[in-house]
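User: Teach me something about this protein's shape.
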Amino acid sequence: MGNLPVVTTSFVGRISELGDAARALEKHRLVTLTGSGGVGKSRLALRAADRASERYADGVWWADLSHLYDDRLLIGTVSDAVGLLDHDLARPVEALCERLADRNLLLVLDCCERIIDSCSHLVRELLAAAPGLAVLATSRKPLGVRGEYRLDVPPLAAGGDGEEAMRLFRDRAATAAPHVALDTPGTTAAAVRICRRLEGIPLALELACARLAENSVEQIADRLGSRLDFLTDRTVWPERHRALRTAIGWSHELCTPTERLLWARLSVFPGAIEEADAQAVCSGGPLRADAIPALMARLATQSVLQHNGSRYRMLDTLREYGAMWLDELDERKPLAQRHAEHFADVARQAHTCWLGPQQVAWYRRIAETDADLCAALDHLLAEGSEKAVEMAGCTGLFWSCCGHLQRARVYLERALRIDSGRSKHHTRALWALGITLTLQGDHESAREFGERCSVAAWHDHDAESMLSAAHLVSFNYLMMGRPQTAHDVSDHALRSLPGDPLAAPSQLRCRVIRVFALSALGRLDDAYEDATNLQQLSLRYGEYWARAYADHQLALIHLLQGRPREAEDHARSMLAGKYQLRDSLGIALGLDLLAGAIAAQGDGVEAARTSGTGHVYWRMIGHPHRGTPELGVIRDAWERQAREAAGDPAYDSAYHRSLTADAESGLVRALQGHLPS
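Assistant: First, the predicted structure itself:
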């Protein structure tokens, strides 16, 4: 159980350090691997965590902090890493502490150095709240938390042919240039010289090996030696980093001018990089957009970039070097602006295409560019740009649907503070924040934003704005247990503003509220008709979000009217749709319904398993109410049915096994193996 990243290159040496790390983790709850950039702290932490995984019943969880330049996203990043989505209104740190309080797990915090004070504070609170928690951190300096055990990660031993640095050099050389022989006395001696001159630093050795396709081992040894002797690099790195600085600088010099320019410009990306995004942000001057994919591939062969599927990543140390040259070129500010404007446009496109066959693809796009969207919003907010208001409103629905409520709330509140209120972007941001507050259970604040959103929509004279306001107000009433008022508000809006949902996607959202309100009021025949119409409308546009909620209501109605087999089919269909969108709230609701349908058919043990998996998702989300209020009574009735069918011991055993199992595995079982790709 866990989320350790998959690495395709081999792990070489470090036997002594792995042993030290294993012994340290047995005795200490906080172990920090310290060392300079490029020395291999992250790879060592990954291998050490993997080896220790059997000791932690609740798994090993990895949080990559390398893209964080301030502390605002730290809690959200760590929460995401351990599978906690933030529907809870409690302070994020409190929710995270509560999530981990009874867990026995290892949390790996990779690259703490930029936000070292915030990491120290968080680790201190987590260790105090969760006695079964251990933390393995990597950082260029220790966290300074009481009880911390520090392990300094040295470079690889670089003494001779049998040493670790030489083994790494041979391994990476075989990948980069399989035609190069290292078994002659001359090449072996030259390789040993390289390992010594680069002081056994893994990143430096990988950069050197990447040049073997164009240079002999002897040439590399001579040139690196010369560069060390006459170092005139304009960096300000400490003297102890001279070997790494030399390797990076030499690799940089061997790049073509356009490769160097791209390296510098790519440093503006905090996370993984798509070719299309690089073309949009980095092109200009001598760097043509159509040349960028080939240049990125070339930088990957030189180990400047790491290629993973359709995306690239740049190691933090190399990004720092690129950023230094971006400053030298006086391009940091314009590149940050281009990056921000590009991802604001991505958010705008996602919002525009929400209703349609590309809906799932846009949900995934937003999830995969998370770090860039946050960086873009931070930049636009710092500039005081009203584009930040538009962007926050566009991403708000995606983030709230996928459980990132605290992030959505923080950015929307910041955006509204700089908003002039002169455009429909203002209305959209009010709507998105109101939905977020409702999902967090802050109904009084949501009511206030519903009123503000309604006034703003009236000034807009725009159907989408007015439907959005109605959606927010009626949704808040529904979650407060007032389905009649929720029905009246949504129904009035739909009757007053008919038309094509493509022109006003919130029409579909209001339809979802109306059908939920009808079933809560016991008007099941009306609800069935509404849900069927909603399903057909969603199918016409090829969208998943509203269709899944139509399936939810059809499953509920079939179940309440004594047709559990039909209810089971609709519940599975809902789960499939919500899995496509990675909508954990929808998955939790669907699992509850599926458990009820299975219980009604007499399989109490399978119902217990499904209910246990559902509880895992509810616990992940931290949702205080587990859906609309009326579902609680119905859920209790399903549980009684399942217990009567299975017997209390069998029910409790199956339930608790699912409760402690991996959430995704439980979902696969619930879908009977038909997991969408």
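Now, about its shape. Residues 229-238, 673-677 have pLDDT under 50 and may be disordered. The chain is about 65% helix and 5% strand. If you'd like, I can walk through any region in more detail.
User: That's plenty for now, thanks!
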